[in-house]
Specification:
By secondary structure, the protein is an alpha/beta fold. The protein is 57% helix and 12% strand. The chain has 20 helices and twelve strands. The strands form three sheets. Strands 3-2-1-4-5-6 form a six-stranded parallel beta sheet, sandwiched between helices. A hairpin with a 7-residue loop joins strand 7 and strand 8. Helix 2 packs across helix 4.
Length: 519
């Protein structure tokens, strides 16, 4: 009965548009760095943290108005408490987990295991509760219990919440966390030195009445101050043995500082490219509208320059690091990402509906342009695409891939894209189009009934496996294109198969299918 009641609530929440919209809104506001309103939320929380710490410091020696104390102890604490509960709520989807478990048990024709799903929910939420950021959030709420004056010091934990709202601080922590093993080794090394030196200096100095080091704690204090090269001079060994220990510890301290410095420098050096890439991705997300150029070639460079002269923004995607570096030297916003990969667009967070005016496919191979076009079309059905054509026999393949405008490199001097008074994009003048023979071809094969039956069987032969790529199949009856089709696809007479490979391999493939046909 309880299980059925829980499942009913889960289905109700999952089907409620208002609930889903509300949860998505708070998730974006709290976690989605690309959400436009998140920065206002972050700035507000940072101001509250600064105010809270200022009131704490000011209240040490001066009186603070009761209104400000109330604001600090109650209002700010309640705001942080609400934020903590909202983060706890949006961390995972409980209703989805319940429904998945219910449908799984229903499929296996067994009773709904409510304890299993509750155990899963508790484990998932526990990951949030015991995470470092969540613990800091919880400690920052402690000043709410202002009757316990000791808990007021937890206001200082609100400073650590700045890491949650400042991306640069988050990057700094992530960079240092990538060197956990090195810092652990350094800590162990420093700990051993501090322990040994503390015991040695205590043994050498504690029995000398003229020595200021009389307790083990003072010995530990002296060791820490000395090994980290601070040297306040409040505790100074007076015996020859103690001074000998001090000289050794000073040298060891220089080694510790040098080791720590090298770890930090190497961590930032290794992450420098990633930091630059993240900065470029943020810059792309801030551009309202731009032309997306896929592939950086001499042609793409000329097109990009023409766009910049007319005041248009350009974003270049290129998988080759050297070409991206060249584009960045020219002042272009270029990213090292494969334009034919869905992962690239998810990483960059490009919104094709609102940001991309048009996509220009300017790779030096028709094969790459086709793959890029299919990838973009999977993301957006409406975005305008233009592609150059290197070999006239591939025009139909580019058209089937969803490209709006195809320019044959040997027919035109160039093309340029511009927007005419808010209307759909018109493509004109791109300079110096060129083609380059790569030895790889795209071939379209019109299949009859017998060839259709033999198509996938022939493609699975050893000589063609992983050497001949079946790019897709165009179904004539349904007028639809199936990219990277599976063997279960029903191929019929009149369908067009598009394959990629060398000329000799494609010819052998067609020849073998014809021999099978005669049999």
């Amino acid at each position: 009965m309880i299980g059925r009641w829980i499942v009913g609530i889960a289905f109700f929440l999952q089907a409620s548009p208002r609930y889903r919209h509300l949860k998505k809104f708070f998730h974006n506001l709290l976690e989605n760095t690309s959400y436009p309103y998140k920065k206002f939320f972050d700035y507000t929380m940072m101001v509250l943290i600064v105010i809270s710490v200022y009131i704490l410091v000011h209240h040490v020696k001066y009186e603070v108005k009761p209104d400000w104390l109330f604001f600090n102890n109650y209002v700010i604490s309640v705001i942080f408490l609400i934020e903590y509960l909202l983060r706890f709520w949006v961390y995972s989807d409980n209703s989805k987990a319940i429904i998945e478990q219910y449908e799984h048990d229903l499929f296996l024709q067994r009773p709904f295991k409510i304890l299993t799903v509750l155990h899963h929910i508790v484990l998932t939420k526990s990951k949030f509760v015991f995470s470092t950021s969540a613990i800091i959030d919880l400690l920052a709420i402690m000043p709410f219990f202002h009757e316990m004056r000791l808990l007021r010091v937890f206001i200082l934990f609100r400073v650590f919440k700045l890491f949650r709202y400042t991306k640069s601080l988050q990057q700094f922590v992530s960079i240092l966390s990538s060197k956990k093993f090195e810092f652990l080794t350094l800590g162990m090394f420093a700990g051993v030195i501090i322990t040994v030196s503390s015991v040695l200096i205590y043994v050498m100095e504690a029995n000398n009445p003229d020595s200021p080091i009389n307790t083990l704690f003072e010995a530990v204090y002296w060791s820490v101050v000395t090994i980290f090269t601070v040297g306040y001079g409040d505790f100074v060994p007076v015996t020859s043995e103690g001074r000998t220990v001090a000289m050794v510890i000073i040298v060891a301290g220089i080694a510790v500082i040098s080791f720590a410095t090298s770890i930090v420098v190497s961590a930032f050096t290794e992450k420098l490219d990633e930091i630059k890439e993240d900065k470029l991705i943020d810059d792309v997300s801030k551009v309202d509208q731009f032309y997306l150029i896929c592939g950086y070639t001499p042609l793409a460079a000329q097109v990009a320059h023409r766009f910049l002269k007319t005041g248009k923004s350009v974003v270049i995607l290129e998988s080759n690091h050297k070409k991206v570096a060249e584009a960045q030297k020219e002042g272009f916003l270029a990213l090292t990402h494969n334009p034919a990969s869905l992962h690239s667009y998810h990483t960059i967070r490009i919104n094709f509906e609102t940001q991309v005016i048009a996509a220009l496919l300017l790779e030096e191979s028709d094969v790459l342009n086709v793959y890029t076009a299919l990838t973009i079309r999977e993301i957006s059905k409406k975005v305008q695409m233009l592609s150059i054509l290197h070999h006239h026999e591939n025009r139909r393949k580019l058209s089937l891939a969803g490209i709006n405008e195809i320019v044959y490199t040997q027919e035109l001097i160039g093309l340029m894209s511009k927007e005419v008074s808010g209307r759909p994009v018109a493509f004109e003048v791109i300079h110096a189009l060129r083609s380059e023979n790569s030895g790889v071809f795209i071939e379209e094969i019109v299949l009859d009934s017998i060839m259709a039956n033999q198509f996938f069987e022939t493609a699975k032969l050893t000589m063609f496996h992983k050497r001949l790529i079946v790019l897709g199949v165009y179904k004539q009856l349904s007028k639809s294109f199936f990219f990277n089709p599976s063997n279960s696809l029903l191929v019929e007479e009149g369908d067009v198969a598009i394959v990629v490979g060398t000329r000799s391999l494609i010819d052998e493939f067609k020849s073998l299918m014809r021999r099978k046909k005669r049999r």
